[in-house]
Amino acid sequence: MNVRKMVTVIEEIRAEGGRAVSPPATVAVVAAVIENPWAGQGFVEDLAPGIEANASDLGALLAPAVLEALGAPAEAYGKAAIVGLDGEIEHGSALIHTLRFGDHFRKAAQAGTLLPAVEKRGPAGVVFDIPLKHITDATIRSHHQSVEVRIADAPHPDEIVIGLAAAAQGRPQQRLADLSTER
Amino acid sequence: MQETPADPSAERIGLRKLVTYRDVVVTEAGMAPARPAQRASVAAVIRNPWSGAAPLADLSAGQERIGPVLAKLLCDRLAKVLGGVDRIEAFGKAAVVGTAGEIEHAGALIHTPFFGNLVRELLDGESIICFADARGEAGDSLTVPLWHKTHAATRSHYQTVSARVPDAPRADEIVVIAAASTGPRPHSRIGDRRTDPVVTSRTLEESPS
After folding, report:
1. CA B175 to CA B15: how far, in whole Å?
2. For residue A8, which residues of chain B lie inside 8 Å, CB to CB?
3. Which residue of A has its CA nearest to B73?
4. Among residues A119, A163, B20, B163, which one has the fewest Cβ atoms lying within 10 Å of its Cβ?
């Protein structure tokens, strides 16, 4: 796994809708900009060797880093794979849609649900939104949220940005009725 | 990164959110830098204190009230995210004013001693702090220049870091940014004033290249 750079983003929301958010609502993202393991190889039918060589290492790199950046227990989480223009979206999906990747985060956050994800292809500086859901029950509506990220010079055409997001709480000023009230 | 829930200083300056960005170059051009530097920016989104004020309104009271609070908020986060003030070698500052404000409002918050002197003091610097400012829309990306905090002419430390808040500034807001780096550019190798040859239009005529 060839990493070019690591990026950390921490958002602290102190007021929303004109009212204070107390304690501040915190969301953190950590992303690794890596060389696309399948760059320059044409159409690769079997992605499994590349997945085995990279996915677990990426999960082990990012999971503790995003929890450290958050500085609090995670209540919601999500993941991202943003593929440079010369790659396939399948390449990004390959690295994040495997238990080898996500289990690191689930274990570190004592979580149980599947990680919601964004997968897209774009140029360096592309804006992407990472969806987050509750770490133990993906139906908990208060925790449905997303965080927007942009890395000025990534991904290059032969790179992939792999990211994890964690939130210490649900949405600021969340006040929607629970899903169960509509059943 | 959390702190006291009801922070009165934050409410006093109309703070809506803080966004911290940090990156570290692990490899550049395929090689690890000799000294991998961490670069960071911290952006505070506040209500423009002069929103709706009369043209040519006096800005001094707002500068004095808001600048020191911002300097402390931003520098505390820079130090934390970069591993301490001692590790910081370069710094810079910036502001983006929303479309209902004046560039002068952005300048009022970053170009006076109430912000600049305190940033310099809190980050243990001596140099004038280089800057960028702009009026823009929410989500505009700003490139913030940095240079060495005690020796501004140190060319290896000329670098930039990007700062962006997806939903700010609103028209009546200002984003104020402080930025810093723990080292030089990766693979910096363009000499320095001490090693530069004398270059004038005349010397270039004498030795065409």
Report:
1. 10
2. 20-23, 81
3. A12
4. A119
Which of B3, B4, B7, B16 to probe by mutation at the A interface, max A CB count within 10 Å? B16
Tokens of residue B202, six digits: 């005349």
Q: How far apart (Å, rounded) are the C-alpha atoms in residues B150 and A66? A: 33
Of B6, B81, B162, the CB nearest to A22: B6
pLDDT at A173: 96
Nearest to A9 among B7, B21, B30 (CB): B21
The number of domains in chain A is: 1
pTM for the whole structure = 0.94
Domain ranges of chain B: 8-206
Token pair in block for residue A39: 């760059």
Name the CATH superfamily housing domain B8-206: BB2672 (3.30.1330.110)
Cis amide prior to A49 (ω within 30 degrees): no
The low-confidence residues of chain A, meaning pLDDT below 70, are none
CATH code, domain carrying A126: 3.30.1330.110
Confidence at residue B126, expressed as pLDDT on a 0 to 100 scale:
97
Q: Kindly identify which residue of chain A lies nearest to residue B29, measuring between CA atoms.
A: A4
B97 close to B103: Cβ distance less than 8 angstroms: yes
Q: What is the DSSP string of B178-191?
A: EEEESS--TT--S-
Judging by beta carbons within 10 Å of its beta carbon (0-12, 13-18, 19+), is residue B41 exposed, middle or buried?
Answer: buried
Structure token digits, residue A103: 């289990």
Question: pLDDT tens-digit profile of A75-111?
Answer: 999 999 999 999 999 999 999 999 999 999 999 999 9
- Residue range of the domain that includes A18: 3-182
- pLDDT beneath 50: ranges in chain B: 1-5
What local confidence, expressed as pLDDT, does residue B208 receive? 58
Instruction: Please identify which residue in the block is written with the tokens 């750079």.
Output: A5
